[in-house]
């Protein structure tokens, strides 16, 4: 069942191009995005004045990316919140609020309780979920299924990428229903989404240097991750994978926050994984991250740089350089996450741990 792979996690990483293709299937048409299963009327979607996204763990990281995409394409204010915190602060909700609950399993109790609270307050609730007929979609007004197929490994990989795809589709759909603001850009994103399975296949074929690097990093005392904009949730996700699989101290930071404290953590040879934005998509943002890389390097860090193909300028600041294919800025997490998944899986294996069944963790967390 592992399809020739040593672990389910490796198989599920390799399955990602197909999982994305399946999640896109039938939803990108010549007339735009078609989400027939989303049973909230176009009028109700036009009336939405505020979006909240609630989720836990990896699903929360996909929500962080979704916030950037939804706000940019629709101009609707969007907040993302840990499901376990949501109802305790008495959020402001009404019938013009759309609450999006993201969950692979559809059974996560924290997310379910956040959703129930939102419904009680008359908000409309839409689930993004990978498990047909599970509790969270059953209790929601509408559901957008990710078609990732069953995820067996405890650490989420293909579910994350398909959650991102579902969030992009939903963001584009909201923009479409409400009158597209950036028609050219949205068209380009749709075309690019169709190409992501092929780009990912190419990327997955080029991961040998990451495997080699993993052996080097397996004895590090800590590993830090930095990113900006959508690279920030990717940094958090890379750190989460490393914590849960390799039991190493790993932290993700917004690159700009480093100088406000965390830079004190860096000493000689601390590995810092740096997620660099596209110089084509946003040159200013890319240059800011490159300055942040220089700052950590000046303090002795070993910099492992994830950058876009063609960005030769970063080479001078990278002890190790991993290129990913060029895609529009908002879609970059579909590419930049992959080397971080492989890194965590390989480091954990090098340290002798079972990547499919990490200690203390369960695949679905049904207690609050
Ligand atoms: C991390 C991981 C967890 C889940 C979280 C939410 O690899 O798997 O952080 O993402 O427990 O689970 P779902 O998506 O099932 O609600």
UniProtKB/TrEMBL annotation:
<feature type="domain" description="SIS">
    <location>
        <begin position="41"/>
        <end position="180"/>
    </location>
</feature>
<keyword id="KW-0032">Aminotransferase</keyword>
<keyword id="KW-0315">Glutamine amidotransferase</keyword>
<keyword id="KW-0963">Cytoplasm</keyword>
<feature type="active site" description="For Fru-6P isomerization activity">
    <location>
        <position position="363"/>
    </location>
</feature>
<protein>
    <recommendedName>
        <fullName>Glutamine--fructose-6-phosphate aminotransferase [isomerizing]</fullName>
        <ecNumber>2.6.1.16</ecNumber>
    </recommendedName>
</protein>
<keyword id="KW-0677">Repeat</keyword>
<dbReference type="GO" id="GO:0008483">
    <property type="term" value="F:transaminase activity"/>
</dbReference>
<comment type="function">
    <text>Catalyzes the first step in hexosamine metabolism, converting fructose-6P into glucosamine-6P using glutamine as a nitrogen source.</text>
</comment>
<comment type="subunit">
    <text>Homodimer.</text>
</comment>
<keyword id="KW-0808">Transferase</keyword>
<feature type="domain" description="SIS">
    <location>
        <begin position="213"/>
        <end position="358"/>
    </location>
</feature>
């Amino acid at each position: 069942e592992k399809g020739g792979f040593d672990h389910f996690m490796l198989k599920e990483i390799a399955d990602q191009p197909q999982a994305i293709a399946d999640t896109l299937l039938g939803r990108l048409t010549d007339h735009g995005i078609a989400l027939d299963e989303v049973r909230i009327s176009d009028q109700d979607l036009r009336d939405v004045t505020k979006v909240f996204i609630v989720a836990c763990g990896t699903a929360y990281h996909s929500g962080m990316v979704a916030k950037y995409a939804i706000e940019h394409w629709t101009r609707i204010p969007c907040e993302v919140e840990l499901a376990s915190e949501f109802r305790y602060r008495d959020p402001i909700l009404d019938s013009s609020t759309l609450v999006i609950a993201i969950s692979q399993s559809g059974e996560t109790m924290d997310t379910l309780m956040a959703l129930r609270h939102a419904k009680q307050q008359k908000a409309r609730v839409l689930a993004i979920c990978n498990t047909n007929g599970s509790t969270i979609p059953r209790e929601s007004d509408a559901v957008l299924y990710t078609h990732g197929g069953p995820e067996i490994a405890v650490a989420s990989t293909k579910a994350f990428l398909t959650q991102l795809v579902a969030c992009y589709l939903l963001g584009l759909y909201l923009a479409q229903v409400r009158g597209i603001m950036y028609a050219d850009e949205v068209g380009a994103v749709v075309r690019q989404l169709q190409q992501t399975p092929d780009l990912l296949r190419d990327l997955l074929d080029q991961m040998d240097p990451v495997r080699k690097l993993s052996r080097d990093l397996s004895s590090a005392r800590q590993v830090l991750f930095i990113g900006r904009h959508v690279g920030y949730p990717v940094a958090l996700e890379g750190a989460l994978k490393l914590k849960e699989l390799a039991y190493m101290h790993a932290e993700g930071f917004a690159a700009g926050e480093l100088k406000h404290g965390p830079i004190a953590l860096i000493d000689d040879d601390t590995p810092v994984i740096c997620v660099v934005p596209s110089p084509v998509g946003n040159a200013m943002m890319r240059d800011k991250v490159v300055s942040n890389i220089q700052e950590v390097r000046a303090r002795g860090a070993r910099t492992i740089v994830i950058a876009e193909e063609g960005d030769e300028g970063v080479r001078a600041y990278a002890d190790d350089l991993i290129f990913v294919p060029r895609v529009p800025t908002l879609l970059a997490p579909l590419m930049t996450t992959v080397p971080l998944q492989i890194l965590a899986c390989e480091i954990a294996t090098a340290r002798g741990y079972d990547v499919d069944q990490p200690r203390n963790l369960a695949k679905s967390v049904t207690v609050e």
